[in-house]
Amino acid sequence: xxxQHVQLRNITKRFPGVLANDRVNFDVRAGEIHALLGENGAxxxxxxxxxxxxxxxxxxxxxxxxAPVRIKSPSDAMRQGIGMVHQHFQLVPPxxxxxxxxxxxRSAREPMLDLDAVGKRLRELASRYGLHVDPHALVWQxxxxxxxxxxxxxxxxxxxxxxxLDEPTAVLTPQEVKELFVTLRRLTxxxxxxxxxxxxxxxxxxxxxxxxxxxxxxxxxxxxxxxxNTKELARMMVGRDVVTSWDKPPVKTDDQxxxxxxxxxxxxKGLPAVKNLSLDVRAGEIxxxxxxxxxxxxxLAETLVGLRRAESGVVSVAGRDLTNHDPADxxxxxxxxxxxxxxxxxxxxxxxxxxxxxxxxxAQPPLARKALFDFDKIAAxxxxxxxxxDVRTPTLDTPVKSLSxxxxxxxxxxxxxxxxxxxxxxxxxxxxxDIGATEYIxxxxxxxxxxxxxxxxxxxxxxxxxxxxxxxxxxxxGEIVGVVPPNTPVDQLGLMMxxxxxxxx
Amino acid sequence: MKMKPLDLSRFNAIIVxxxxxxxxxxVGAVMLLVLGANPLDAYAAMVQGAFGSPNAFADTLVKASxxxxxxxxxxxxxxxxxxxxxxxxxxxIGALLATAVGxxxxxxxxxxxVPGGLLAGFIGGAVxxxxxxxxxxxxxxxxxxxxxxxxxxxxxxxxxxLNGPIMDPTTLDNAIRIPQTQRLPVAxxxxxxxxxxxxxxxxxxxxxxxxxxxxxWRTTMGYRIRAVGFNPRASRYAGISVSRYQLLAFVxxxxxxxxxxxxxxxxxxxxxxxxxxxxxxxxxxxFNGIIAALFGGLHPIGTIPASILFGxxxxxxxxxxxxxxxxxxxxITLDGLIVVFVVASQIWxxxxxxxxxxxxxxxxxxxxxxxxxxx
Lengths: 505, 375
Ligand SMILES: Nc1ncnc2c1ncn2[C@@H]1O[C@H](COP(=O)(O)OP(=O)(O)O)[C@@H](O)[C@H]1O
Ligand SMILES: [Mg+2]
Hints:
The complex is a heterodimer of chains A (505) and B (375). Chain A is α/β, with parallel strands linked by helices and 505 residues long. Chain A is 32% helix and 26% strand. Chain A is built from 17 helices and 22 strands. In chain A, helix 14 runs parallel beside helix 15. Chain B is mainly alpha-helical and 375 residues long. Chain B has a domain at 67-305. Chain B is built from 16 helices and no strands. Chain B has helices spanning 8-34, 39-51, 54-79, 87-104, 110-139, 143-162, 169-173, 200-218, 220-230, 232-237, 242-269, 279-282, 285-295, 300-324, 328-357, 361-374. The chains are: A alpha/beta (505), B mainly alpha (375). The complex binds adenosine-5'-diphosphate (ADP) and magnesium ion. Adenosine-5'-diphosphate (ADP) binds at residues 15, 18, 20, 38, 40-46 of chain A.
């Protein structure tokens, strides 16, 4: 399984109505990490699934060490020394790590399993590449980062010389990303070839040797990482310059808008999710809540807007106690909310664009008079918002479910900001949204800040929090483990996010 | 947001169930052959019976009336994702209350008695639907179970009253205890187009169908009902009280069914009677109305032709029985066949719609081109 050079030549792949890959050229050599960068839907996964034998290319060829090969299935790929760690893991949760590795392999003692032998070799591999996991642990008990290690081990166990990692960092904490990168470096040192897929620029800058950017199924270019920068890469991804840092004049007032005092709330299972949490946000200030998702951020946001009961504590907005008030009350008090679950909570998918744009305000004049809609006014209101916020939709009567994620998010943003809120709670406002739309949403948040809105920004994307927040509150297991300025080193934030460090404010 | 009168999806909403209905008739034709009858003759007899004369057509509309009332109520309930299948019970309670008004105010003039009776029916149905609503929103009782049980309870209540407090005194005198009331005062009769059996109830139903259409698509209340029906989470997020609007959907749909009961009472039977169950009085209109609403695409205007169609089926089936001598069970079977086919077609078209509506790319691309061009 000696792989020196793998080439994909003129690969074209069509899906009904979509040209997913258009004459793509891509190559990777032993000992290098070649990053594949592109927005959602650019065709990265498709290209890699072709290389891994999950899809067949409509046109084009694959060469290994300059010899053409046909890869008809993943087992073909594995035989050629190609391994892939998918975006969604392919493990059997009730099995142990060793059993998962052995799955589908021929045992030396057929028909009996030879788990001891597997475990032995597994331990060797694990220590060689710094991939520490307990071979006897059950997979479902492992943290996500550890499960990913099992996936990598699975590929290495099968003698993968080329390893494809599809958005491996999407599910990891900053600390786990660091550990992963150490492993990846070790793999290249031992002569492995790596393809690293991501849409996060700074990761690509940090780990790769070369970068190929895909846009709309086409290669925009391949560059050596040391000869490029995030700005150029972003421009290649989007097709124009992208703003990633924002001017923020200092916060002028001491006007406290949101005050949270010793707030506690439960999650859906009835376990404590928000624990005795206190925080405040001033007018014209963005407070970012950083943290790995699942540490109570969702519950916190829902409690603030009246969708979840506060077990104890106080939430007040502009001096008014709104603890456990109705959502309608809280909306009326000038609180806007961009929910994390935008498809199931932020919009009604079967309603049209204009129906969704009046979700909270439909009963207010001039949209409705005496409970009867004024459709002309509604259409005027909606078309103004659609234009102003650049929501790309064929008509105002298009059901929201046929818009793209980024456009749905812009619609929600338009609706929430058009209410001129005092307080905006934005939860994961750009998760899964492409760079262009992300930039746009950030611009709007900064504008809103300048207009004096208090903004609570909840995000797992540390770059986003660093770029936008005036203060960063790190949340871990339902608590704020520290409030720090945005010039805090990422390392320190990472430790706080992992619960390993506390900063008293 | 405004309803366009004839876009493709609306067209499909009529065409697909129509084909399904035809398929049902086709299977029915096979059964008729097995029974030794000529299907063409049989169906001709049905059409003749339902539409062949002014009288026949009037009968069809009369049969359609309770279906229409239940059907437009079903539109409200199902649009709110509230599965109210308690039309039977709501009809009965509505009719019972209207009966009480008629029996109590024997001497009242028509201009009081007619609206009074209708109002009583409306309120009775509202209360009966509201009980299921409270059970669901307060105590999380599944509404399918509760409404079915409330159907039985309504049947028992009616039977209880018919066997005692409001039993026709003349039958008591003759010692032949028939579970029915005396004839209600003539002043309570709905307007009727003599010599046919056509009465004003159908016209009232037409007007209410239009009103319900306006309610659902042109008022803030209807917007909220539909919002809750599509997505209760997003509704709650938007400050809409989900339980309040679910309860409202129960009350309104129940009220319309109850009104249908009062109309049937004051327009057709002029007395309350029972065979011990709810359907003895309703003729299963509480269920058939739901089917008519589904057939009409859960749109109150679409429910009008759908109700007439099912009314025709009922009237035509009677004719069939009389002329071709097929067993009465066949008529029920035919009815069931059509229902099964139509419901299956609804599920089918929902599935295919989901598949064809998914691809979002072309939409985004054209919008992109438009915005690019506009720059
Ligand atoms: N199995 C499939 N069937 C149809 N279209 C697909 C399929 N897989 C991907 N696509 C489409 O191909 C394009 C590229 O997708 P993908 O390779 O997953 O992008 P990426 O991984 O860069 O986000 C997208 O428009 C996507 O909708
Ligand atoms: Mg992908």
